[in-house]
Write a structure and sequence with these properties.
Blueprint (H helix, E strand, L loop, with lengths): L2 H10 L12 H18 L9 H12 L17 H20 L10 E8 L2 E8 L16 H12 L17 H14 L3 H5 L16 E6 L10 E6 H24 L10 E6 L3 E6 L2 E6 L5 H6 E4 L5 E4 L13 H6 L1 H12 L1
Parallel strand pairs: 5-8
Antiparallel strand pairs: 1-2, 3-4, 5-6, 6-7, 8-9
Helix pairs in contact: 1-2, 2-4, 5-11, 6-8
Length: about 350
């Protein structure tokens, strides 16, 4: 199988379950694609026949400043130790899967025993020696609360520093962006975790009104597939409800006007939804799926449908102005504009 067919089968056809093992398929696909192309162009071998010697040369190419596909040192730059370790993690998971499925008999990695304290006991695990110990995370810079509030109100909501509406603000999704930011700040949710919320996953507010409500982060959307319980402030739940009833509803109406939902690629048709499960229709077959097992990709493909098959809306909570699910890059691409707005008001 060629490396191109391999990538297509693993990440688009979900061949034999590999896709269910990874939390970020796009990043894994890029790491594996670069590795496959390196083996083909620089080592004249395939991903199934790669050896530790190939991995050593790959490390020299990626960390030494020589691009994996170029023989000109001036045409490439080295990646950081943290980026290299992320690549090793992706390749290690791939080769462990390939070994378990019988595609290979020898892994291109070597392992050593690592010991760590787990509670009052010493646990032992196998650690890939290709990881670099010197990898350091970049120093995190924290916003003060005042700086965050300024960013939220001026950069996201488009208000003047005094609180009045800014007539020059061109944004159309201020409340969505501000509510999303509030959710991240008050709960500690990661971007992908928060962006994977679906309706009606958040708990309802009941009397007597508590200060916060519990919410279980689904393992399928969490980093490392480690679900956990968090508490969402009641005021944030109310803001989300307000966004859903006004801004989100308008986005869905625009989506219907544009015929977006009639051209939806590979829709997962949900005919009934609760906080815990979806009832899904595939042809004449109706099945029940637990929401906790649905990956972000599956959630983005889901459409809420009536009994006659008519589409009502996407299941994803956060939508673009045209009624399609937001992606992580959608939030990141708005940052330069927000920074320009902030700088203009800070002068």
């Amino acid at each position: 199988m060629s490396w191109f067919l391999l990538i297509r089968e693993l990440f688009f056809s979900s061949a034999r379950g590999f896709l269910s093992l990874v939390a970020h398929p796009v990043g894994y696909a890029l790491d594996l694609l670069t590795w496959c192309r390196f083996l083909q162009k620089r080592r004249e071998t395939t991903v199934w026949k790669a050896t530790r010697a190939d991995l050593i040369v790959y490390h020299q190419a990626r960390r030494g400043g020589l691009g994996p596909l170029s023989s000109d040192p001036a045409a490439a730059t080295s990646i950081s130790a943290a980026s290299w370790n992320r690549t090793v993690a992706a390749l290690d998971k791939f080769y462990q899967w390939a070994s378990a499925e019988g595609y290979i008999s020898v892994l291109p990695f070597t392992y050593r025993e690592a010991h760590f304290l787990h509670g009052h006991h010493v646990a032992t695990m196998q650690r890939n020696t290709a990881f670099e110990r010197a990898a350091r995370h970049q120093e995190t810079k924290f916003l003060t609360m005042d700086a965050y509030l300024f960013f939220r109100d001026v950069g996201l909501r488009g208000r003047l520093s005094g609180g009045a509406e800014d007539s020059a603000f061109c944004g159309r999704n201020g409340e969505r962006n501000a509510t999303f930011a509030e959710l991240l700040v008050t709960t500690g949710l990661r971007l992908t975790e928060a962006n994977s919320l679906v309706l009606p996953e958040l708990p309802a507010i009941r009397e007597p009104v508590p200060k916060s409500v519990p919410y279980l982060v689904a393992p399928s959307t969490a980093k490392g597939q480690k679900g956990r319980k968090i508490y969402v402030p009641t005021r944030i739940v109310r803001q989300i409800t307000s966004y859903s009833e006004i801004e989100r509803a308008n986005a869905i109406a625009r989506g219907h006007q544009r015929g977006v939902y009639t051209r939806w690629p590979h829709p997962l048709r949900v005919v009934q939804a609760s906080r815990r499960t979806w009832t899904v229709q595939r042809g004449d077959e109706v099945t029940t799926l637990p929401i906790s097992r649905l990956t972000p990709q599956v959630r983005r493909s889901a459409l809420l449908c009536r009994a006659d098959g008519t589409v009502e809306a996407p299941m994803n909570l956060w939508l673009t102005e045209h009624g399609v699910p937001m992606t992580s890059s959608d939030y990141e691409s708005s940052s330069p504009h927000d920074l320009v707005v902030l700088e203009s008001h800070a002068c």
